[in-house]
Design a protein that fits this description.
CATH superfamily of the largest domain: ANL, N-terminal domain
CATH architecture of the largest domain: 3-Layer(aba) Sandwich
Radius of gyration: 23 Å
Number of helices: 17
Oligomer: single chain
Helix content: 25-40%
CATH class of the largest domain: Alpha Beta
Structural class: alpha/beta
Shape: globular
Strand order of the largest sheet: 2-1-10-9-11-12-13-14-15
């Protein structure tokens, strides 16, 4: 992490009064940020000298940024404790990772008490002394648990630093950039995009605390208005938020501000039609691909090197190959391994199906273990069909599966504002919507059965993660019992042809 703190101290020295982070309540310029990080690190060494692994619990606040950086500065392995995880999951994370001390933002003190681990609010101590940062810093990132119990990804060999530097070069990060952070900082992607890259560039970051805290709960937030107000140049989104932004712009007959130059979108497939609509509205969308096991970013479209339908070219220095249809990554950002498991040794078989074209652009087809083989012998990647269906702004989430017979079933989770539409329309109308979305897919891959499942219903049955992702495996296991009685009759053949 030395390069990160060298950049922080350089910026504090040459432009200390320039804004670093602002969460709407607290603001830190670069000089104050450097002093707070140094002060918090000193306090951590004093109050918990033997804690090799610490937890940081909280939302998108300036304090969280200080806690994360100070943990690294003190040479500790930091475990972000996502505020959207259940307390039972947080306890599991803490035990599994060996967390012996927790820092928390003030709004999460109540949750910290339930963990049974010594904790304290993230200190606001300032230090004028800037000791050399330790070389032992690391990170443990836990998966969201969308397919089971969260697993710890160990990153102690400079993976996050490598990725942040590579990403900064890829997007040509600069000091006059303005970042808007709407994803939870506990996500590795957002830690890199909204903390590390801006510090490397000396840029300013606006942290949207309320938005990040609630984006996974199905609520509709005025994202378009938020971006128009702050006029950022860069930000990172998941496809669901891009879809929301586009819908809001279209409803208002507006376009995105011309301040934007790079909007990274990852976490799931982006339908080319959705990306095209984004560009039409002034949103410079660049699709990417990555996973925590590989430092969060593996490939990325970028200005001058973008191909719709792909996730771009691999970051320079990464070796990506397709082995028996599977994406295999080799290089510096590959994890040390899962906790309590065998070392990764610089190689990660991702479990994702993909292909690389002659120009080096990577296309991700979906998860190998999600592949559907129909009774007619057709191989279908459900993620592909899901991305097509998600191009309709009325759909917040979609899971495509096969239950019985020759045809697929689509489980549709309406966007909050459109739940009434789904309650009022016929099955044929839903079928027509799905078919229109899937017009580029072959007929055998177009779902002909439909289930409408409001997000609140899925959450009530524990079928969504705290950050708003579908627990695919749990949903499909529960499908026959909970959702099958609500399945529609097959849409008319004339609709689905």
């Amino acid at each position: 992490m030395r390069e990160l703190f060298d950049a922080l101290h350089y910026r504090a020295g040459v432009a200390g009064d320039s804004l670093a982070f602002d969460d709407g309540i607290d603001r830190l310029d670069y000089a104050a940020l450097a002093r707070r990080v140094a002060g918090a690190a000193e306090e951590l060494r004093a109050v918990s000298p033997s804690s090799a692994v610490i937890g940081v619990l909280g939302g998108n606040r300036v304090d969280w940024v200080v806690g994360q950086l100070a943990g690294w500065y003190a040479g500790r392995t930091v475990v972000p404790l996502p505020p959207f995880f259940r307390v039972s999951h947080l306890r599991h994370l803490a035990r599994d990772a060996g967390v012996s001390y927790v820092w928390t933002t003030l709004d999460m003190v109540g949750t910290a008490r339930l963990l049974g681990i010594p904790f304290a609010p993230i200190p606001d101590r300032l230090s004028s002394v800037v000791p050399a940062p330790s070389a032992n810093a690391g990170q443990i990132i836990y998966t969201s648990g969308s397919t089971g119990e969260p697993k710890g990804v160990l990153l102690k060999s400079g993976q996050t630093m490598w990725t942040a530097q590579a990403l900064a070069r890829a997007i040509a990060a600069r000091s006059d950039d303005s970042y808007l952070s709407v994803l939870p900082l506990a996500l590795l992607l957002e830690t890199i995009c909204a903390v590390m890259v801006p510090i490397l560039a000396g840029a300013a970051v606006r942290l949207e605390t309320a938005f990040a805290a609630n984006f996974g709960e199905g609520a509709t937030f005025p994202l378009a208005a938020l971006v128009a107000t702050h006029r950022p140049s860069c930000m990172a989104l998941v496809p669901q938020l891009l879809q929301t932004w586009i819908a809001q712009l279209n409803e208002a007959r507006a376009t995105a501000p011309d301040s934007l130059r790079f909007v990274a979108v990852g976490g799931a497939a982006v339908c080319p039609a959705l990306a095209q609509e984004a560009f039409r509205l002034g949103i410079p969308v660049y699709e990417g691909y990555g996973l925590s096991e590989c430092g969060s970013v593996v490939a990325l479209n970028r200005p001058g090197a973008r191909r719709p339908g792909t996730v771009g070219k691999p970051l320079p220095g990464l070796d990506i190959r397709i082995e028996n249809g599977e994406i295999v990554v080799r290089g510096a950002p590959v994890m040390d391994g899962y906790l309590h498991s065998t070392p990764a040794r610089g190689i990660c078989a991702t479990g994702d199906i993909g292909e690389i074209d002659d120009s080096g652009f990577l296309t991700v087809r979906g998860r190998r273990d999600n592949l559907i083989v129909t009774p007619m012998g057709r191989n279908i990647s459900p993620e592909w069909i899901e991305s097509l269906i998600l191009s309709d702004p009325r759909i917040a989430h979609c899971v495509v599966t096969h239950v019985e017979g020759p045809h697929l079933t689509a489980i549709l989770v309406p966007a909050p504002r459109d739940e009434v539409w789904f309650e009022q329309v016929s099955h044929d109308a839903i079928g027509a919507m799905v078919t229109a979305c899937c017009r580029e897919a072959p007929a055998y891959a177009v779902p002909r059965h439909y289930v409408v499942a409001p997000a609140a219903e899925l959450a009530r049955f524990g079928l969504m993660t705290g950050n708003g992702r579908i627990r695919r495996k749990a949903l499909l296991e529960a499908y026959a019992v909970m959702l099958a009685p609500r399945r529609s009759a097959p849409a008319a053949e004339t609709v689905c042809k």
